[in-house]
Amino acid sequence: MNKKWMVTTLAAALLLTAGSGVYAGAKLQEVKAYLNSSVQIKYNGTPVQPRDEKGNAVLPITYNGTTYLPVRAIADVMGVAASYNPQTYTVELGEKAEGVAIAKGFSDMYYTKDPALTTYQGKDYKEAFFDNGSGKRSSSLMLYPKGKYQKLYLQVAAVGEDIDNFYISDSEKDVKLKVDKVAVSEGLKTIVVDISGVNELFVYADVLNNGAMFVPLTTSYYK
Q: Is the model's pTM score more than 0.85?
């Protein structure tokens, strides 16, 4: 099922909450609408209560015979990422049209921009996470998608030794979203993970004595 839709100006104004001033340039028309507490919402047969980002209950709105549901709250229930672009007055659900590199705001002791360390198989990725420490060890990094994205496309390479234990988890819920292995022979491997509604990601690998883990930050991205 394709969960990517684009909804523009009027729907965004009616269905997404935003800070004051966001709609200053939008083509808004004042209407008389009603909060409709009589509408019950079920997902897969189970009653649900839509809530906003702060956990407050939100109600459907009825206007001119049509009932409008709160987009972000319903998207959260269905496991679909939702975001609003105030510059284009666009609500975007599901995967983004363009990827956002995880390099933005990334911080870690193994973060590097040293060309000697950001180059893998002849290509300089400019920014990378490169754990080239010594000994058998746990290698990990944190990512913060903040619930804005549907998918993570993480590129990772095992250097020197295969990585037999690799996983990505929802750090807040302590739930593994992806368990995998990364072999040296695979080169730069792209791992795709559904991260809808996830705020924090924990990426973990067991690295052997003569091994290292390489993650290019400019070509790994959220979408």
A: no
